[in-house]
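Q: What residues go here?
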């Protein structure tokens, strides 16, 4: 009888120990913290664009396996995988560095949101990035941001608002944070704003040849 009781106690102890080894969703998920990590990830990418930091823009710490970039402009689009995108960024790296150091080039990728945030302004440059988290759960998320691009170089009296549009980013959650699985950049003023409209096919034109993400129009 005592042996049987001891055996049952041992089984109970093992069951409790095993239960303690299985992480629960309550312990592994804090949405407030994950939203902050998610915002930090997309902000780090935007800063990488401004500083032409290739690792921050397109490194292994930024992109998940199978990442795809889609660029849409003038009713047409094309897609790049991570390898092609990084190759283009690397091929233009020296040109970017020289134009920045010798011609005073600078760029601001300003992200605007539909909801009010202190310091965020529409149709003008501001220092605040106001991303919109469209959806988020324990495994994936989607983030969007209306964008404006401001560029400047030596000899210009003021910054040039060279582009605007919409960025959509899909991400997957990993232990260290979030990685991007897909990004769509829609260039054009018709995509900048809460009321996004389609471009009539009669006005569509071929996508300009772009290097990388297509933001730096001033760079020769």
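A:
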């Amino acid at each position: 009888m005592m042996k049987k009781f001891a055996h049952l106690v041992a089984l109970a102890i093992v069951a409790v120990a095993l239960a303690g080894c299985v992480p629960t969703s309550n312990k592994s998920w804090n949405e407030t913290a994950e939203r902050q990590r998610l915002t930090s990830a997309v902000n780090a990418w935007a800063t990488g664009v401004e500083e032409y930091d290739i690792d921050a823009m397109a490194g292994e710490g930024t992109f998940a396996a199978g990442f795809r970039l889609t660029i849409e402009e003038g009713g047409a689009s094309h897609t790049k995988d991570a390898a092609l995108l990084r190759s283009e960024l690397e091929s233009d790296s020296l040109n970017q560095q020289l134009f920045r150091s010798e011609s005073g080039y600078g760029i601001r990728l300003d992200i605007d949101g539909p909801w009010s945030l202190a310091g965020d302004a529409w149709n003008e440059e501001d220092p605040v990035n106001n991303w919109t988290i469209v959806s988020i759960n324990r495994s994936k998320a989607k983030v969007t941001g209306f964008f404006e691009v401001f560029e400047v170089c030596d000899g210009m009296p003021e910054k040039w608002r060279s582009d605007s549009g919409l960025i959509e980013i899909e991400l997957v959650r990993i232990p260290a944070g979030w990685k991007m699985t897909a990004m769509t950049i829609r260039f054009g003023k018709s995509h900048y704003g809460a009321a996004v409209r389609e471009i009539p096919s009669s006005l569509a034109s071929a996508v300009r040849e772009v290097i990388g993400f297509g933001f730096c129009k001033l760079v020769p």
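A: Context that may help when evaluating the design: The chain is about 30% helix and 30% strand. The chain has one domain: 30-203.
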